[in-house]
Known about the structure:
The chain has 412 residues and is α+β, with helices and mostly antiparallel strands. It is 26% helix and 26% strand. The chain has helices spanning 97-105, 126-135, 153-165, 193-208, 221-233, 242-256, 300-316, 390-405, and strands at residues 3-6, 16-22, 29-30, 35-40, 45-49, 54-59, 66-68, 72-77, 117-118, 121-122, 211-219, 262-265, 268-271, 277-283, 286-292, 329-333, 352-365, 371-384. The protein has a 6-stranded mixed sheet, sandwiched between helices. It has a 4-stranded antiparallel sheet with strand order 1-8-6-3, with no helix packed on it. Strands 5-4-2-7 form a 4-stranded antiparallel sheet, with no helix packed on it. Strand 14 and strand 15 form a beta hairpin. The model is unreliable at 95-114 (pLDDT under 50).
Amino acid sequence: MAEVITMPKMGFDMAEGTLVEWVRQVGDEVGEDDVIAIIETDKANVEVPALRSGVLRAVLVEEGQMVPVGQPIAVIGAPDEEIDLEALGVTEAAPEAEAREVEEAAAPTPPETSPAVERGRLAVSPVARRMAEELGIDLTQVRGTGPNGRIIKRDIEAYLREMEKAPEKAPPPLPTPSRAPAPEGIQVEPLTPMRRTIGRRMVESKQQAPHFYITYEIDMEAAMALRKELNALLSEDERISVNDLVIKAAAIALREFPRLNASFAGDEIHIHEQVNIGIAVAREAGLVTAVIRDCDRKSLTQIAREARELIRRVREGRMRPDDMVGSTFTISNLGMFGAEEFAAIINPPQAAILAVGAVRRVPVVTEDGELAVGTRMKVTISADHRVTDGAEAARFMQALKAALEQPLRLVL
């Protein structure tokens, strides 16, 4: 039976996304999990995989089109299968490829048109922007045919065809900026959609969730020694980071204290059976939270492999829908930047987030009263007082501390 692919929901408050590029075309054979399209959310570009093997039988939206979450975007079926779009709940497909070619060929010469502008800046899809940068194209000279005049991939291709035909001529003057110039000594940087979303959600979190904070210092001597021994036996792509140790320890503690593995939902508290830990990954555009599922059931090496692969996909802008949704608890680690300790803002609707500082060599006083050098790391939990209280959060932190200070528990 044919399978309908819909616009995936990539975050708690995502309502729509833009279909940036069709990686596969109608008639192409696809395997399960093959990438068929790339969508753009306000946080990132995400790859959309095929849910089954078969043939891409129908494309239901155009590149550059804004699509609500849950709306059908494509149909995959067998090569000889009769596809009844109406029976599948689909109203109509996108225009045929022929129609697209006619539309592109009929487009006016790019230099004679005005550029697409969105909130004072060019509206350009990520794929089109990357093509323009690679080819040295001035985007102000490209006519956008996407929604609201957005410049998309086919517009770059059409511009190139026109430039091949047209004789060389002086470029037209740049359009006059509509906004007032910045005061002297100030560089104005418009907020990106991603930065606006992060800011809005963090403001909502601080205003709506009554945060409280608890900090513990953990003796990491044994954990770092175990990590060194394990990494000596593992291949480079399996080696364990400090963050992997923290993820596994947090998963053990969350299983013991499930109200920290919860979310606030109006008049209800939802306690999650799965322990899906989100890890904050820094990109130039802002933070993205990638999700490692069932951390309590996975080995330390499995967590290390998945975390490394997720981080790589996030930084390359090649996330899958499942990479960014479904986390039940979040860990933010700034230790690699040398931060000793900090407090993070809860990622709604989750009940808590763990902030992890650097592992440091510091002077300590032993049980015998002697001064020595120890290995310490500070961690701070930010928790929602509507879901949990200080005593429960402190017991969770004690369990986390115990797992890291007796690290054989992480590998048993």
